User: Which sequence fits this backbone?
């Protein structure tokens, strides 16, 4: 059966890590790649280089901060939504939704929320509520949907090397974890945890205290599958080798491999 590989990668600055991105795309060849933390304005997004690598792309940039993009190998993503509903005054570029090969793909960069308590944590929780509300609409639609991105939530203590020194961090707060659990309770399948139910698997290693070298990681990048997509899960994983390259992002790409009908591909312009 044909397959569809969907990946998510917090690139942590697409201009400074463009070579690393292109190398990963060439080596791993995801059919769809969701990128977060572009840290560039729309007009300086490297669309020509990405298209030259064989990927169509839509993006929602923001100068110096945030930013999300959806890439499709040999195809043009069809943008469905730019930004979450519920707050017309929200200026952060954190959500982008597109249709690719008959799948609705939501790419998200959930707020970090530190320091907490405070306005940044309040914004994180408010944004999470908007995501939960929109995700319910997507799930109820019955369409095949994948919600992929940097959720900035460590779901449980099994998703971090050692929670002790992170207890006050916004990523581990009960409110953050409760919001993630309520999102899953809609019926979404956490693909990495489904594939590795009893193993510690990480997607993020910060730059401090030799955390990469000692495999002191966190799982904060997630791919959630709708009811239509969950039975199609064939495999999932993390491209850890990317984190070990020179000048890396502090994240590694996470991905799912899904059984999915083949569709005719139109080469990206």
Assistant:
């Amino acid at each position: 059966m044909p397959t569809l590989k969907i990946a998510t990668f917090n690139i942590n600055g697409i201009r400074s890590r463009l070579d690393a991105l292109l190398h990963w795309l060439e080596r791993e060849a995801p059919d769809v790649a969701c990128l977060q933390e572009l840290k560039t304005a729309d007009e300086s997004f490297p669309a020509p280089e990405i298209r030259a690598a064989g990927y169509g792309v839509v993006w929602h940039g923001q100068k110096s901060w945030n930013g999300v993009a959806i890439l499709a190998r040999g195809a043009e993503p069809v943008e469905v939504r730019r930004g979450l509903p519920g707050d017309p005054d929200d200026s952060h570029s954190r959500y982008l939704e597109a249709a690719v090969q008959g799948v609705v793909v939501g790419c998200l960069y959930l707020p970090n929320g530190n320091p907490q308590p405070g306005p940044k944590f309040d914004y994180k929780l408010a944004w999470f509520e908007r995501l939960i509300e929109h995700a319910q609409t997507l799930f109820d639609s019955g369409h095949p949907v994948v919600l992929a991105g940097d959720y900035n939530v460590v779901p449980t203590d099994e998703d971090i090397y050692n929670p002790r020194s992170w207890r006050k961090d916004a990523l581990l707060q009960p409110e953050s974890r409760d919001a993630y659990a309520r999102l899953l309770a809609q019926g979404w399948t956490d693909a990495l945890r489904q594939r590795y139910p009893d193993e510690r698997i990480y997607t993020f290693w910060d730059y401090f205290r030799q955390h990469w070298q000692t495999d002191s990681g966190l799982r904060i990048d997630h791919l959630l599958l709708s009811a239509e997509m969950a039975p199609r899960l064939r495999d999932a994983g993390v491209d850890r080798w990317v984190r070990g390259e020179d000048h890396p992002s502090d994240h590694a790409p996470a991905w799912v491999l899904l059984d999915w009908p083949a569709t005719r591909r139109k080469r990206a312009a």
